[in-house]
Amino acid sequence: MEEKIEKVKKEKKPKSTLTKIIIGILIALIVFLLICMAPFLMFCGAVLWEMFFVHPDKPEIEQAEIPFVLEYEYKGERSTIEDAMIYEYAGDSFALDGGTTRDWNSEMKYNEEYSFFYLDPENEPDLFIYIELNPEYYMGAPDYEWGVSAPYLSYWDAEAGQYYEDEKEIPEIDAKIISWSDPQPIENTFK
């Protein structure tokens, strides 16, 4: 009886050709999928890593009010805008096109039109002065490498279908910016 048990143990059933083919196809498919999916999996891993573990430094000063004075002339009459840019840190967020970034709330203290100052809203609704509100610059972000543009006149000429951003090019409009107080960014620390 012991001989029969040993014979059964020693005898192995040969694998059929179909089984070998199926195993070979499965292995090839797994290798192919791993090779094709590797870049996708690495991208997903990098995105998830940045989304959950990489956060920009928080500013020590989270709120600021930066006053400015802008003087302009419109139709021979000089006017002055005295306002302030208000910034508040709002945390950070993730976007696939730019990674994790700081979020800011920004507004003008007195102007309800964000950064557009309309010179004559009733008669010239398409003529305004644009002031760039850039919280990264004005709140002193160390990783912000650019400045901000000076305020400029903008005009949409509906008849010509033309948009103008240079006061020298604006046709038949007697308007120009005379002076800008050029507010400087605050000194801020980010940790």
Low-confidence stretches: none
Output the strand order for the largest sheet: 3-2-1-8
**Structure summary, number of beta strands:** 8
Number of helices: 3
Q: Rg to the nearest angstrom? A: 33 Å
Assembly category: single chain
How would a crystallographer describe the biggest sheet? 4 strands, antiparallel
Structural class: alpha+beta
Descriptive account of the structure:
By secondary structure, the protein is an alpha+beta fold. The chain has helices at residues 2-10, 17-53, 135-138; strands spanning 63-74, 77-95, 99-108, 116-120, 124-130, 152-157, 162-164, 175-180. It is built from three helices and eight strands; from the N terminus they run H-H-E-E-E-E-E-H-E-E-E. It has a four-stranded antiparallel β-sheet with strand order 3-2-1-8.
Structural key phrases:
single chain, 191 residues, alpha+beta, four-stranded antiparallel beta sheet, 3 helices, 26% helix, elongated
